Automatic annotation (TrEMBL):
InterPro entries: UDP_glucos_trans. Belongs to the UDP-glycosyltransferase family. Pfam families: UDPGT. Keywords: Transferase. One of its GO terms (molecular function) is quercetin 3-O-glucosyltransferase activity. This is Glycosyltransferase.
Length: 397
């Protein structure tokens, strides 16, 4: 099929770290002349609508399906399955029946097995997309095996044998935190269920796309391909394509970016600033905040810290946290706090000499592309495995 006749529906898991790479993929398709519909959930679209609108003309059609969520949510997976699935199926069906340009292909986030399945049931070819590194995706696919071997019980230093190609290298503490279920001496059955569903969805898809580079992850990609029993393509790092017109005119930030920090960076010396961001989902306690802040201040370096309004729990007024940072940094201009940063511009700035990161995959790729050394504080999901590879394989520390 030629590009002009194709119509691709791109459907990300509604989280910042999944929306960003899939938007870059969608933008690359638009730039290649392909018609694209980008599908959000209602909750995400409401949040995006609070930011300034992107400049017209809109390069791709943006739609949303209900997610059953009010403004805050508890169990995203269950809610999306119950609410988004029927709406998504109906949307696909109406596109197929319309006299306009029907959807000819779906690229759905592999975190939503139903999105691949429903498209294939309706005769629309579906590709699964993974916003993760191949090494962490492989660990995820091996979850049942790890559980069988009893290698998920405690986040210890013991090497694991259940992930092919990483035997003796990966330690239990390099596996996702949610796999460790000490009370039950194994994995949480819910986590196992989710891992199995994701593995099923990538097997059901015709192709699995990973936002990674073959030059970085060839061995892990080969193992993913043999486990997934489908064609696997490394299409990343996708953010590297986002200088394109289509990506530049698409807004994806769920928080308002604070551009003021760029002027602050301009006033700092070369490679003198520690940039700190724990991504879009991690949450820390007040105890962690206080201890971490003391450590940061003790380095003597200037730092720029992304303190999302929902980073510290229980919630504290942002003003109090900012005052604590200013006091720990000794007043003056040594510390800057923002709720959300223009991260890629920050990492590109000459003043940034270190990135203290949660090792989310987008942050890891964006940082590696700019050649900024990383210090990792991983929280969950793929972050532990990414962090192990950053330190011991890729050597970006
Ligand atoms: C989540 C998981 O944590 C991550 O491990 C997984 O790979 C993807 O989903 P998240 O916590 O959002 O991701 O981290 P990350 O993958 O690093 O994505 C965050 C994105 O937000 C990056 O593209 C980053 O540039 C952007 N960001 C972050 C900003 O634009 N500004 C900020 O202040 C912080």
């Amino acid at each position: 099929m030629d590009a002009a006749a194709a119509h691709v529906l791109v459907f990300p898991w509604p989280r910042q770290g999944h929306i960003n790479p899939m938007l870059h993929l969608a933008a690359a398709l638009v730039d290649a002349g392909v018609r694209v519909t980008f599908l959000h959930t209602d909750h995400t679209l409401r949040r995006l609508a609070r930011a300034p609108p992107p400049p017209p003309p809109r390069p791709m059609r943006v739609l949303s399906v209900p997610d059953g969520l009010p403004y805050c949510f508890l169990d995203l997976m269950a809610s999306i399955c119950d609410t988004s699935r029927p709406a998504y199926r109906a949307l696909l069906l109406s596109s197929l029946l319309s006299s306009g340009a029907p959807v000819t292909c779906v690229v759905a986030d592999g975190t939503m097995p139903f999105a691949v399945q429903a498209a294939e049931e309706l005769g629309v070819p579906a590709l699964a997309f993974a916003a993760h590194s191949a090494c962490s995706y492989l660990a995820l696919l091996c979850t049942p095996r790890l559980d069988e071997l009893g290698e998920t019980a405690f986040p210890a230093d013991d090497p694991v044998r259940g992930v092919p190609g990483m035997e003796g290298f990966l330690r239990r503490r390099d596996l996702p935190r949610e796999l460790h279920c000490a009370e039950q001496g194994g994995s949480d059955p819910m986590v196992l269920k989710v891992a199995e569903a994701i593995a099923r969805s990538c097997k059901a898809a015709r192709v699995l796309l990973l936002n990674t580079a073959a030059s970085m992850e060839r061995p892990a990609l080969a193992h993913v391909a043999s486990r997934a029993a489908t064609d696997v393509f490394a299409v990343g790092p996708l953010h590297a394509a986002s200088s394109s017109r289509s990506a530049a005119s698409s807004n994806t930030s769920l928080w308002q970016e604070d551009e003021g920090c760029m002027a602050w960076l301009d006033g700092q010396g070369d490679r003198s600033v520690v940039y700190v961001s724990l991504g879009s989902l991690a949450v820390i306690t007040h105890g962690q905040f206080t201890e971490f802040l003391a450590g940061l201040a003790a380095t003597g370096h200037a730092f720029l810290w992304v303190l999302r309004p929902d980073l510290v729990r229980p919630a504290s007024p942002g003003l109090l946290l900012r005052e604590a940072v200013a006091a720990a940094a000794g007043g003056g201009d040594r510390a800057r706090v923002v709720e959300w940063a223009p991260q890629r511009d920050v990492l590109r700035h000459r003043a940034v000499g270190c990135f203290l990161t949660h090792a989310g995959w987008n942050s890891t790729l964006e940082c590696a592309a700019e050649g900024v050394p990383m210090v990792c504080w991983p929280f969950f999901a793929d972050q532990q495995t990414n962090s192990r590879f950053v330190g011991a394989v890729w050597g970006w520390t």
